[in-house]
């Protein structure tokens, strides 16, 4: 009775693993526990003999030894490793290797019906006839058709994965990753997201630039425009500036046309000294921006300065549809 209970519990753990695991994007099949192994204990973390079945063939079963580990820490995901030679490899890598081994056989000169018959005879000779195993657990790619989803839905899902919000601070964090108001760090980094697929990046990167509201204080704006490059600069649609009581001085120093700069002649102290001339680059790059919305945070800005600050902002960019005060 105790052994049967262990078996049922272990199969239930396998089902939990199969519903949320780091799946191979190719393998379709099933896994079951080898029945009636004398003295074997079926516990998490211990080697357990199983039978794996590849659904690409009529009957392609083989014995494997696995170790299944329970969720740990904040993760709710089971982990599985498979014995391979003298070491262990992840279930994802092992199942992908099985798939490609069979795929190579399909592309060889061996007739498929002959190979299928050979695999079936080997399975029956080593494991007996294939019956209906109630304890069999299906293995399949989890959400493999993702690239076939509408682009808008792909973007929404991937944006949720990196914790993307509308507002972001490029000079404080990686571009397009916003500060999370709830204090939770995103489950996936932006760098990881961009390594998923070059094809997806073709629409993902433009989407991030088009939908983000980039926030800047007194530093970081020029560097952001320069690093974005001409192709991405033209995608920027929303900017928000937070300059506080130094808003007018900042605009006159860096964004105002030459006559206004010469009129006020504000002192510019920079380290290194050559940075005082960076306003030339700011104005040149800003002219490439055609924006939907520019927002100015009026917190700490003297009311008398707002008119001149607004006039400077309206003149420095290529075009602005809306200038708002927040």
Can you offer a commentary on this structure?
With 326 residues, the chain is an alpha/beta fold. It folds into two domains: 2-143, no CATH class; 147-325, no CATH class. It is built from eleven helices and eleven strands. Strands 5-4-3-2-1-6 form a six-stranded antiparallel sheet. A five-stranded parallel sheet has the order 7-8-9-10-11, with helices on one face. Strand 2 (48-54) and strand 3 form a beta hairpin. Helix 7 runs parallel beside helix 10 (279-286) and helix 8 (247-254) runs parallel beside helix 11. The longest helix is centred in the N-terminal third of the chain and has 18 residues, at 2-19. The protein is elongated, with a radius of gyration of 30 Å. The termini are far apart.
> Based on helices, strands and strand pairing, what is the structural class?
alpha/beta
Strand and helix order = HEEEEEHHEHEHHEHEHHHEHE
Shape: elongated
Distance between the termini: 70 Å
Which value, in Å, is the CA radius of gyration?
30 Å
Count of discrete alpha- or pi-helical segments spanning 4 or more residues: 11
Strand content: 15-25%
Adjacency order of strands in the biggest sheet: 5-4-3-2-1-6
């Amino acid at each position: 009775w105790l052994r049967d209970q262990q078996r049922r519990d272990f199969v239930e753990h396998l089902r939990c693993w199969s519903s949320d695991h780091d799946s191979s994007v190719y393998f379709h099949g099933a896994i079951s526990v080898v029945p009636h192994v004398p003295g074997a204990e079926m516990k998490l973390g211990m080697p357990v003999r199983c039978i794996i079945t590849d659904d690409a063939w009529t009957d392609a079963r083989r014995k494997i030894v696995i170790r299944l580990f329970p969720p740990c820490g904040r993760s709710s995901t089971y982990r599985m490793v498979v014995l391979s030679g003298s070491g262990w490899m992840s279930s994802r890598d092992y199942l992908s290797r099985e798939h490609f081994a069979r795929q190579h056989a399909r592309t060889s000169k061996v007739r498929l019906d002959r190979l299928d018959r050979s695999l079936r005879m080997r399975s029956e000779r080593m494991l007996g006839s294939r019956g209906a195993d109630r304890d069999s657990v299906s293995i399949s790619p989890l959400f493999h058709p993702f690239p076939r989803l509408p682009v808008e839905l792909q973007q929404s899902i991937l944006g949720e994965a990196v914790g993307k919000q509308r507002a972001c601070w490029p000079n404080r964090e990686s571009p397009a990753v916003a500060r999370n108001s709830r204090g939770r760090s995103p489950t996936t980094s932006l760098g990881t997201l961009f390594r998923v697929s070059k094809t997806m990046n073709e629409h993902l990167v433009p989407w991030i630039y088009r939908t983000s509201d980039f926030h800047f204080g007194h530093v970081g704006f020029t560097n952001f425009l320069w690093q974005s490059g001409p192709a991405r600069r033209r995608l920027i649609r929303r900017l928000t500036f937070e300059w506080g009581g130094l808003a007018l001085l900042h605009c006159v120093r860096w964004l105002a046309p030459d006559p206004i700069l010469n009129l006020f002649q504000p002192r510019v102290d920079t380290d290194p000294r050559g940075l005082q001339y960076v306003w030339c680059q700011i104005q040149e790059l800003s002219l490439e921006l055609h924006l939907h919305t520019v927002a100015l945070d009026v917190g700490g800005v003297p009311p008398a300065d707002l008119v001149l600050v607004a006039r400077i902002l309206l003149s420095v960019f290529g075009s602005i549809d809306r200038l708002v005060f927040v």
